[in-house]
Each structure stands twice: as C-alpha cells, then as structure tokens.
Design a protein that fits this description.
Elements (H helix, E strand, L loop, with lengths): L1 E3 L8 E8 L6 H14 L3 E4 L13 H7 L3 E2 L3 H7 L12 H16 L3 H8 L5 E5 L2 E5 L18 H11 L3 E4 L6 E4 L4 E4 L14 E9 L4 E8 L3 H10 L4 H9 L11 H6 L3
Parallel strand pairs: 2-3, 3-4, 6-7, 7-9
Antiparallel strand pairs: 1-11, 2-10, 5-6, 8-9, 10-11
Helix pairs in contact: 3-5, 7-8
C-alpha cells in the first residue's frame, strides 16, 4: 500500500471512498478489488470509466458492478462502445498504438451486449460530490477532456491549480493514463486513481485502486492499494479469445507491450522499454 497526502494521522476518518478506473474487461481483478474494498469498509465505490478494452469477455464486468453498487463515470471507451463509434477515442497518436487499440475496440464492441451498451450510453461524464463543504469532482481523463492524459512528470502544478479553480473543486480524481499518482496543491488535491485492467509497466502483475479518506481535521489521505488476482487465468482466457499475444504478455510480465509511445520519458524509464 502506498500512502500520500497525510497531514495528521492521529485524526479520525470521517468519510472513505474507493475509486478505480480502467477495468478493461478484467473481471477477475474487479472481483478481487471489490472483495478487498468490502473488507475495509467504504461509504461508496466509484469507477472512473473504461469498462471494456484489452481483456476478454467484457459482459462479465457489468453484473459485478451492479451487484456491488459501483457508481460509474463514462470513459472514452464507454462512450464509444455505447454509441457504436468507429474507434475507442483513446487519444493515441502513434500508428502502432492505434493499431492495437483498434483490435481491442473491435473485439469489445462485438462482445458487449445491447443492454450493457445502453447502460454505457447513459453514464455521466463526471460526478460531483460535496462532503463537509469539500467539493469532489470525479472524471475520466480530466475535467477538460475525457481522453486527456495527465501524467505525473508532465502535468504542472499551475495547470492542476487552474483546473481546481475553474472547476471550483477541492479534489479532482481521474484515471485514463493507467498509472496512479497524486499531488497535494495549494488549492486542493489531484489524484490519478490507477486502473484495474492491466499492470503499471513496472514488472509487477498486480493492479491498483485508491482509497480517498476525509479526516476530522478536513485533511485528505490518499492510499493506493495493490490488488493481486489470478492473472494467469486471465491470460489463458485472453489466449482462448485470440486476443493479441502482446496483451497477454503484459498481463503475465507486468510490462507494457502496447500504448508505449504515449508515455513521457520519465514514465517510460520506469519500465524496461
């Protein structure tokens, strides 16, 4: 567990929320994360979008979300699959990245039922919460654009302060990049909650969700929680569904084999590529 943004650990927790993004059809990781979340106890569970992509059997995700009362923000994938668009609107610019993104998208669209597509069409692009005069904005990429990549190494404090000011938020939580991080700012807090769908390009097979806790002194605690799941079973199912070997390799090794060109140099150096 990685903990940041703690101002006073002696104060009591007043509210606790679980947040994750990028399920990417990884229903096995979703089940494991929700089991861990239930044991910890939370006031609410939020998914910040991208239910499909990458993994096998996208329809298996939806009953798990519904049965656990997970509240979902619409990601770019959800908008695209829900409305049967031509591509995933992922925001990649490299031809190789777009090639694999299209394979993933076509498979997900083909294997997502109409009732689940209708559910995705109706999802909100953002959710706003107010807890003890603290305003929380939940979105997918950023409040500015659903598929905006906010990387830790390239996103300035100035830009995050600007987003907090314009959005009149004390906390902004997002995902989309696939790599967790958070930053305490003068105006508030930004959190990238990570994803459940695939590992972080760090050689570890676990995935991540985030606990966001408001304490009685009005400080926030951000805890990034690792989730171990049966990744070998997921890899077998991906092979059976004839998904690309590159996707399977990522699940098994913990290293990204696609979507690499979008990575800034610092995040790329964290991996083996």
């Amino acid at each position: 567990m990685v903990i940041h943004s703690v101002t006073n650990r002696n104060t009591k927790i007043k509210s606790r929320f679980a947040l994750f993004g990028g399920v990417y059809s990884n229903y096995l990781a979703l089940e494991a994360a929700l089991q861990d979340i239930r044991q910890r106890g939370v006031d609410a569970i939020y998914c910040l979008g991208d239910l499909g992509a990458f993994g096998p059997h996208p329809d298996r995700v939806f009953p798990i979300l519904h049965n656990n009362h997970v509240i979902v923000v619409q990601g770019n994938y959800d908008d695209s699959v829900g409305n049967a668009l031509n591509d995933c609107q992922c925001g990649y610019t490299d031809p190789r990245d777009n090639h694999f993104a299209q394979i993933s998208y076509d498979y997900t669209l083909q294997n997502t039922s109409e009732p689940n597509r209708k559910f995705m069409r109706g999802l909100p692009p953002e959710i706003r919460l107010t807890v003890d005069d603290q305003n929380i904005l939940l979105c997918h990429g950023s409040p500015r654009r659903t598929n905006e990549f906010l990387w830790e190494s390239t996103t300035s404090d100035y830009y995050l302060e600007h987003l907090l000011e314009v959005q009149r938020a004390d906390v902004i939580a997002a995902t989309h990049t696939g790599i967790k991080w958070n930053r305490k700012l003068d105006r508030g807090l930004f959190v990238n909650v990570g994803v459940l769908g695939r590992p972080e390009n760090d050689g570890s097979t676990n995935v991540w969700y985030t606990l966001l806790e408001l304490r009685t002194d009005s400080s926030w605690t951000v805890s990034h929680i690792p989730v171990a799941y049966n990744h070998t079973a997921l890899a077998r199912e991906m092979q059976q569904e004839k998904l690309p070997d590159e996707f399977v390799d990522t699940v098994v090794s913990g290293w990204w084999t696609t979507c690499l060109e979008i990575l800034p140099s610092k995040e790329r150096r964290r991996g083996k590529h």
